[in-house]
Predict the structure.
Amino acid sequence: MNLSRLDLNLVVALRALLEERNVTRAGQRVGLSQPAMSAALARLRRHFDDDLLARVGGHYELTALGQVLLDRTSAAYDVLERLFASQADFDPAKESREFKLVASDYAVAVFGTELARVVHDEAPGIRLRFAQTPTTVVDDTGTLLSTTDGLFMPHGVISDFPSTDLYDDRWVFLVARDHPGVGDQLNRDDLARLPWVTYQRTYDAPAVRQLGMLGIEPRMEIAVDSFQLLPLLVEGTSRIALIQARLARLLAPLADVRVLEPPYEAVPLREALWWHPVHTHDAAHIWLRETAARVGRRMADKDETRVPP
């Protein structure tokens, strides 16, 4: 397809039409008259060779292709918006803008709080908005990255996108302090027989995939979308949970749990900031990445993976 023949203004019109499902409201939304928006719809119908909006009774509904285009158009609009917002120069002390970062609650608690402190001191006009990592991150990474400024995610889960390393961590286990079936150490039989509480899609984590290679099949009992809930769901139960040592150091004092070392050499965890290639040469994004890397180096100088018993 020859993009030079396309009017990119049609992306704006298409998004409004698909979301509003009404020509008049779509025109009002983007500042076009009803005849102008009708003309845009006619051009879009010719291009896609599809009605996109089909009248059903007194209202319009999306056709099958229109439904497919709904999400794609929103993603394309976000990419274009970010592309044309790119800057050649960026002065963090004077600029005012928002960065949207996708991260688990673990990454926000351990790293995001430190990043926010530095940004507050050095760039008072900059806002950070943290969004929860969706369960679909592995299935459609490109779309996610195209609609955000970055994703905090350890190596081994996604690939094929630019990234910068931030800090290292390691895995430990949580058990109830009064757990009658676990002594001072866990063994591999414990990992197979005890019920687990896990974070979201556990099978995406290299540390859990490693267990399968060791012949251990965890008995999953509860899955949650928050790492910070793991200690509470372990406390007073027979469950165990796999958690990052830096987060365990923060949370273990808040619940009646013990932190135990894995009974095997667990794969290390290296957290990274991932982004879409459209951001690579943007001055504002370069500042964000360099600031994040600097915060990560500062964290590396502290021994925060050793958890008190």
Observations:
- The longest strand covers residues 97-103.
- Residues 37 and 178 are 67 Å apart (CA to CA).
- The mean pLDDT is 87.
- The radius of gyration is 24 Å.
